[in-house]
Amino acid sequence: MSTSITRPRPWIKNAQAVGIAGAPGEVLASPPSGMRPTRRSSDVGLTEYRRKRRFAVTSEPSGDEKRRRKRSRTLAFVVQKHRATRLHYDFRLEWNGVLWSWAVPKGPSLDPSIKRLAMQTEDHPLEYARFEGIIPEGEYGGGTVMIWDTGTWTPDGADVEAAFAKGELKFQLAGAKLRGSWVLVRTRSSGPTAGRPAWLLIKHRDGFASVEDIATAQPRSVVSRRTLAEIAWHEGGNVEKAARGDPPAEIRRLLANPELVARPKRGKPAVWKSHRP
C-alpha cells in the first residue's frame, strides 16, 4: 500500500511579489518501495552545470550540498518553459540527488502519435525545480524561465539505471498538466545535434492522452499563473523577448485588458526594448 506525504508548494523567486508565499501544501503519492535511487553525492553530476554558470551573476541555484532538500519518499519532476535564444521546454526528472534533464524544443504533447525530440542536457540540482525567474542576458541560457508544470513521477520498472542505460525509460507522471504513462526513447543523433544524446518524449495511450495542444491551451505557470512576459516584467527581464514565447492570443488579451496583468510590488525595472536577436 502506498503512503502519502505533504510537500510545500515550490518556492519561486520573488514569491511574495506574486502573492503565493505561504500557499498550502500539496498531498503527493509516494512511489512503490524499491524504486528509490541509491543515495550518493551529486557533486560529480553537477560539475558541468556549475562550470557553465557564474553564480555571482545569475540567481540560479548552485546545488550547494547544505541547501539540498532532505531525502523524500517521492520523486519530483518539473517542466520549465524557457525563452532563451529560442523557446524550449526543459523536462526534468529527479534521480540520485540531481535532476536528469532534457530540452524539448516544441514542448510535451498529449497526443501519442506525436514524438517530441528531447535533447539530453547536463544534470541540474534539485533546487532548480523551484526556480522561476530571470537568467541575465549574456549568461548561459539567458532569458525567462517559467515553472510550466510540476509534480511527481514513478518509474514503471524497478531498475531505473538499467532502463536509462538501455535508452527506454518508461514512467508515470502526476502533474497539474502532464499525467499518466510516458516513455523516453533514446535515438541516434544526426545533423547539428550529432554528439549530443537525443531522445524522443512520447505519451502512451491512456485516459490522459489527448489531441489538445497543451502548450498553447495552458501556457501559464502552474505556481504563479504568470505568462513569460509577466515574469519578465515583474523581475526585470526582457519583456519583448519573453513575450515571443507566449501564445500571440494570450498577449493580445493582456494588451486589450491591462487590468488582467498583476502589477509587481518590487523588483528591477523591466526591459521593454531590445536589439538582441
Q: Care to describe what's here?
A:
Strands 3-4-5-6-11-10-9-8 form an 8-stranded antiparallel barrel. A two-stranded antiparallel sheet has the order 1-2. Residues 1-41 and 269-277 have low confidence and may be disordered. Helices cover 13% and strands 29% of the residues. It is α+β, with helices and mostly antiparallel strands. The protein has helices at 47-51, 160-166, 214-217, 228-234, 239-243, 248-256; strands spanning 4-7, 26-29, 76-83, 87-95, 98-104, 116-125, 133-135, 143-155, 168-175, 179-187, 198-203. It has one domain. The longest helix has 9 residues, at 248-256.
Uncertain regions spanning at least 5 consecutive residues: 1-41, 269-277
Largest sheet: 8 strands, antiparallel, barrel
Average predicted confidence as pLDDT: 81
Structural class: alpha+beta
Which value, in Å, is the CA radius of gyration?
A: 18 Å
**What's the number of domains?**
1
Which of globular, elongated, flat, extended, rod-shaped describes the shape?
globular
What is the rounded distance between the termini? 53 Å
Side by side, the strands of the main sheet go: 3-4-5-6-11-10-9-8
- Summarize the helix and strand pattern as letters: EEHEEEEEEHEEEHHHH
Instruction: Note the beta-strand portion.
Output: 25-35%
Quantity of strands, as a count: 11
> Helical amount among residues, as a percent range?
10-25%
Helix tally equals: 6
